[in-house]
Write a structure and sequence with these properties.
Layout (H helix, E strand, L loop, with lengths): L2 H11 L7 H22 L23 H20 L4 H13 L2 E5 L2 E4 L1 H11 L9 H7 L8 E2 H22 L8 E3 H11 L14 H16 L6 E3 H6 L2 H6 L8 H6 L4 H14 L9 H4 L9 H10 L9 H12 L4 H11 L9 H8 L6
Antiparallel strand pairs: 1-2, 2-3, 4-5
Helix pairs in contact: 1-2, 4-5, 8-9, 9-13, 9-16, 16-17
Length: 373
């Protein structure tokens, strides 16, 4: 007898004409719940695949759960330390280079030493467990080009390993500043990272400490202008590693960096001083902010009133004046007009009706008098 028949039989047997309709409904619901749960329990063994699904969501500790927060922070720190120990150190890299050089395969390709797949695997066996991830068929095929003997360049492979190790080191270093532990950095997190990085960059030795805060603001703004187009206030660590900005910043470790390279590097001391100096020169009333009239002298002073009006309408201002961060966005947009983030910035200014597209009226409104493009 299934649960439906059992329910009907029980109700028929217990029917009492003296009982109220409400009492009968309550009993009916009680019996229904009882028999339904029994029926559902009997089917439990029919499909138990849900039991094998691993847990994929872990609730983050609330602000008042201090103990859980501390536990999470310590767990992350231990995890990052363990990952750091798994990386190749300088001695192990030198040993790897020695093994590669010892097992090179003749003949050389010009000035480059080469290695075939068989010797490649032998080096992998001798290099140790930390190197195992680099000695795979996939890596070998990725570096295989047009060698008639099916070999790869030892130097290219070693540079590949060095690059990977650097990426892992940088990933761990950035993760130490990821306070939320969610794989992204907020503006304050990235500011702390760059501030503590300054003493390790010889090209910034000449900066006065009083200028550090302005330098950090200038550097961080480039990351957020280009990598946070939706202005969420946070950037994925993966995006930071994938772009070239970190390479440009760490290029300042080179004590012999040419003057030309410094001038084209946004993060160099001359570049940061140039941008900040321009801001100070525009700030005629020395209140630390730029009015529309003061910004009109930017560059060659050819920005039109209609364009400046749109800048102050769309950008964040304080009592109608622009602060240094907003000015940096403005400079980055005009100095990098071919980049998607800059095009998006300028498009918003041109889209005076906020339609998401430009019509003839919008274009005529600017192009009659605007020489900024």
């Amino acid at each position: 007898m299934d649960w439906k028949q059992a329910l009907k039989s029980r109700l028929a047997a217990s029917s009492d004409p003296k009982r109220s309709d409400q009492e009968l409904k309550d009993e009916e619901m009680e019996l229904f719940t009882k028999y339904y749960l029994e029926w559902k329990g009997g089917r439990k063994n029919a499909s138990t695949s849900y039991m094998s699904i691993p847990r994929f969501y872990y609730r983050l500790p609330a602000e008042d759960e201090i103990l859980l927060q501390k536990l999470r922070e310590e767990s992350r720190a231990v995890f990052l330390q363990r990952k750091s120990r798994e990386l190749l150190d300088n001695e192990e890299l030198q040993n790897l280079w020695f093994l590669l050089d010892k097992h090179q395969t003749s003949p050389m390709m010009g000035d480059e030493a080469m290695i075939n797949y068989e010797s490649f695997l032998k080096v992998g066996e001798k290099a140790g467990s930390k190197c195992k991830q680099f000695f795979t068929a996939k890596v070998f095929a990725k570096l295989l080009h047009n060698d008639p003997y099916g070999r790869i360049s030892i130097m290219q492979f070693f540079n590949y390993v060095m690059r990977k190790v650097w990426l892992y080191q940088t990933r761990i270093g950035l993760s130490l500043y990821d306070v939320a532990g969610q794989g992204y950095l907020r503006e304050s997190d990235l500011e702390n990272y760059i501030l503590e990085l300054i003493p390790t960059l010889p090209q910034l030795d000449g900066l006065e400490k009083s200028f550090y805060s302005f330098y950090v603001c200038t550097a961080v703004r480039k990351f957020f202008f280009f990598l946070d187009p939706l202005r969420t206030g946070k950037i994925k660590i993966q995006d930071i590693l994938a772009c070239s900005f970190l390479d440009d910043l760490l290029e300042l470790r080179d004590e012999e960096l040419s003057k030309e390279s410094q001038e084209t590097n946004w993060f160099s001391a001359p570049s940061a001083l140039r941008v900040y100096g321009q801001y100070l020169n525009l700030d005629k009333d020395h209140n630390g902010m730029l009015s529309k009239e003061e910004l009109s002298r930017y560059g060659t002073g050819t920005l039109t009133n209609v364009f400046l009006d749109r800048v102050f309408q769309e950008c964040l201002t304080y009592d109608g004046e622009m602060d240094y961060k907003t000015y940096l966005d403005f400079v980055l947009a005009l100095e990098n007009r071919k980049e998607p983030a800059a095009l998006q910035y300028i498009f918003k200014l041109l889209d005076i009706e906020n339609k998401g597209y430009l019509n003839v009226f919008s274009l005529n409104y600017f192009f009659r008098v605007s020489p900024f493009l």
